[in-house]
Fold this protein.
Amino acid sequence: MSVRLFNTYSRQTEDFTPLDPAGQRVKMYTCGPTVYNHAHIGNFRAYIFEDLLQRHLEARGYEVERVMNLTDVDDKTIRGARAAGRRLADFTQVYKDAFFTDLDTLRIKRADHFPAATEPRYIARMIAMIGQLLEQGIAYQAEDRSVYFRLAKFPAYGALAHLNLDELRPSGRVNSDEYEKENIGDFALWKAWDEADGEVRWEAPWGAGRPGWHIECSAMATALLGPELDIHCGGVDNIFPHHEAEIAQSECCTGKKFVRHWLHCAHLMVEGQKMSKSAGNFYTLRDLIGKGFTGREVRYALLTVNYRLPLNFTIAGLEGARAALGRIDEWVGRISDFRFQVSDLGGALPANLSERHEGFFNALDDDLNISGAMGQLFDLIRESNSALDHGQLTPAQTAELLKLWESINRVLAFERESIVVPAEVAALVERRQQVRSDKDWTASDRLRDEIAAHGWIVKDTKDGPKLSPK
Ligand code: AMP
Ligand code: ZN
């Protein structure tokens, strides 16, 4: 079965076919964060869905080249830098760094490229594209000296969002802020410099200013991936006007169809409302880590609901994620114990178990049906636990089972954090073993309490002491 994806453009689930004649390489562009603040976990829902898409395509043998841009100049970043009394580049750097740390905490694979809009090569490309659009009469400079895209020149505008362009035309008076434009829907390609922009300005043949947000993505996407992309993703709020504008600008400049497959994830909601900075109903990853949750638990909660369904965020949901991961950990622990004893030839796995593994990937082929895939994984766990309880799996078969888990986990990235025992705790355990061999039980109990005070529990088993975090 091939990978099938829902395309926002056609509103159909379509067979995924990359442009590469060899059917191997996939060019994927994903709109990244605006670095004026810490990203909230709603933003990360989008990045985690894109991570799942990339990992599943790779599991199916595709080679994905992925770009995620950083929007480091726009109204919000400029306003933030001014309020903080810092240079724009210094202000955004803090949030760029924080973003990369969060990506790692959530186990999101790094993209191949993270272009930032203010890098000179991209600014130069934005200016070149705008220059070309002006020359073609598709863009115009208004009285306010800003440059706008003339929507009337691109009849397909609205096709992605399934909007009728005529409905976008104002019937009554034009908003006074917009009086310079020919049409209220025309969007800015270049914003003329004004005092509020301070030192943030670049020189262009039509005057100083800065790029509009939409042209940033068109320039970075085509600079790194060429005029035609296989996949472009974002959250549903990006569809209009951002992605419509990207299509219009890019296609007018290159003459080629910009994107084959458009994918958008539904919002992360809080009590029926979109999680957003402006509504003030957001959590950052740091907030949740501060409440004692791990990046892996947040990843689980954000990943395991199908991307086109709204996901309601709750703390109870994170607790559910913790419980589900506990079940997976327990099972992985159980099947890992056999890893080093595989001397006999146990033969293939029972058919029902291999079918669960195939079922996991087949579900993902179906427009990333992650809830179906997780259902297969939990069936695999239940059925293999029962087979182990009844002594029906040989060590070699159990080792095979571990391989199935490893291939599933290359997509999920749900493995347990490797537990690093702090040196002082390890030293206490060692001392405790010494006093125990001298049968000094009082000292042994005292050391157990001391270890507990460091947040660790020590259990005495026939194979020696076993440590676990409290
Ligand atoms: P922004 O920094 O606002 O440009 O958003 C970055 C990415 O996060 C975009 O792809 C948005 O569509 C996405 N996004 C923003 N809020 C949410 C949300 N509550 N749920 C899911 N995705 C979101
Ligand atoms: Zn974008």
